[in-house]
Fold:
Amino acid sequence: MSAPWITGVGVMGAAGAGLDGVADDLAAARIRATGVDRSAGLHRPAGALTAVLASHLPTAEWIPPLVARRMGPGSRLAVVAARTATADAGLGAPELHRAAVVLATIYGAAAVTEKLLRQILLESPEAASPALFTESVANAPAAQVALQMGARGPNVTVVQRQAGALLALGRAAALVRGGRADVVLAGAVDEVSPLLHAVLDRFGALTTSGPDGGEAPRPFDRRRDGCLAGEGAAVLVVESEWHAQRRGARPLAILAGAGGSFDPSSPRSGWARDPRPLAEDLAAFLGRHGAPPEAAVTGGCGARGGDRLEGLVLAHALDPLPPLLAPKAVLGDHGSAQLATAMVTLAGGHVAPAPGFGEADPEIGVAPFSGGDLAPARRTVVTAFAPGGAASWALLDRP
Amino acid sequence: MSPAPRVVVTGLGAVSPFGWTVADLRAGLRRGDTVIRTPRRLDTAGHRTRLAAEVPPPPADLLASVGGWRRMAWADRFAVAAAAEAVAAAGLATPVGRAGLYFGGSTAGMAECEQLVGRLLGAFPGRPRIALAASQQINAPGDAAARHLGLRGPVETISSACSSGTLAIGAALEAIRDGEVDLAVAGGSDALCQLTYAGFNSLRSVAAGRCLPFRAHREGLSLGEGAGVLVLESADRAAARSARPLAGLAGAGASCDAHHMTAPHPEGAGAVAAIRAALADAGLHPDAIAFLNAHGTATTHNDDAESRALAKVFGDRTPRLPVTSVKGAVGHLLGSAGALEAVATVLALLDREVQPTAGDDPADPTLGVDLVTGSPRPLAAEAAGISLSLAFGGANAAIVLVAVPEGGRP
Structure:
């Protein structure tokens, strides 16, 4: 069976709707970080201040306000991404009727869950709002996408920390391969709430430094001190080749493969020390799929242990190393950052150096793309390494 | 005859309100008991209702044998215990090595996270212990199980509310069929917490009294907790290592209502699509199905819609198709409901009897279902059963499990 095609892409992030905003931000190294509400006093006094936020942006162009008011921030981001992706793919209602939806999320419906917990814990269990409860489930965005698009195929939400977005692509490919769906709206959606931001800050997961007094995560840098939290949604239309050809659709990319592995030596909130087991698995995956990748979209986000593991795994598994993009340096840590950037690399274009990057961590020995014009990649590998042990990867080919 | 399923179940594990083993679940379901009562760990003060099905304290040997037990959230403990039981029952050594793990869950360690958030917000006294935040990750139970088993392969947690466990089993089936793995640990784990208890109460979905699936005077669900785990492998792999197949996993299907965030489609259209997809995947006609382990939450809307869906799929035979729901006994396990119900479905095939639905009252006659009550209902040796899950957001999932004849392949 031939590999599924990607026939549309939709993004809703800090730069607004569309892939161009992502490409422009990567070309200009523009970190759209804004201040997070710290008024509840839950953050560390000298803790993180900013995140790359998107859920305040207007969505009325895609979702009627009367409908949007019943959605949490993640659902709104996901529905805009899904609407723009299906428009990009030229899909109409009849084709969407059988479509499946597979979305990944790292922390689920953080903002809605925070409101609900405040009601229950600070007021009374009986103060819990049924409307908030409904939107607090991790699958609310996937359900809202199905509801708004009339997608009656399998509806799946994957939660595997930072590895989820690529596992969602793999799940989509499996649905197509198994004949369970001809069209899958697959992607990732993440939102940040003040409480989530404060908890990540107290956990020591967020960067508190960067050039010019700002916060920049500086993946793979010797002085990296954490990630920059981020919001956004990306949806790729994953479609069987025969279905796409029958309706005369062109592929933007070919999803040549997706897979994952797990290192049980990982601590529950950190990363394994020894890169060799996951490097073996990644190398075996790449070996099964033939041609080597010409670009790598890493999940490097500024986490000390995560970037170390990922850099060492890539250095072991990829020889020679293609340009390593680290989009989370600019876009923040959310699943859609990697999916959107992977689509950008297939077209090539200018990519600026990672902001604030100074010196490669000698313990890792790899550095992100130093900036310049990136040739269109015939094949891009995307990798993600989650705290807790999971890893995932995917291959996207330029048609 | 349909072709022999290429994927078989070779191990079962269960942590349920009946206890920490499959044997506890098996005996409890057979008796038709209910363990929905006043919980001890979950504080129901201030809630509209007072009942839930809580997993009893763990046996002492578990505490001693599982590393890091004290730091684990309850949902992680359920997952680890059930996964360890399933793998041991399958005759597999640990570390398991090359295998996939596909797990369902909805809130995981939210109960522990509530302690953190409550302290952060000043609702509870005490210093916030930030390490509790690690508990809340929905993937934490699956990860904990994978680490405990020493598993190396894809690990994927699915969180599609009450269909999560069934979808995870379907994902494992797909992975084995695709040749991505030839061994998989599939299931789910969830634990009771304030958020879901208050949330379902806010929807007025929780029964103040007994949970009575498919009965005329049903008034809602009861919440439960626990984990169910299946070891799945290719039939060839099981045969090569002389493992006894407990059942065949013949097919899986899923759909979405795309109708409403919480209410099921009134005619059960999505449930019909999921069951038909699972049957088609298994290559079976509806007449080949001997019983159904229903979603059966005991809410008015669910049991109505589910019964209508059954009538559409099974037609004239519906009034004679044995239907059971474990939810009157162990409550609704949410993200792990489908996992525990898959274990119950395999047990029914192994024991050649459909477990009764807790409560002696007869079924609501307007629903037109043949509800198994009182005592187990005998099953033929070569039976096939369906386990059905329906979820928030209209996500529906069904799996088809088939009995294994004595000494043979399914």
In short: The mean pLDDT of chain A is 97.
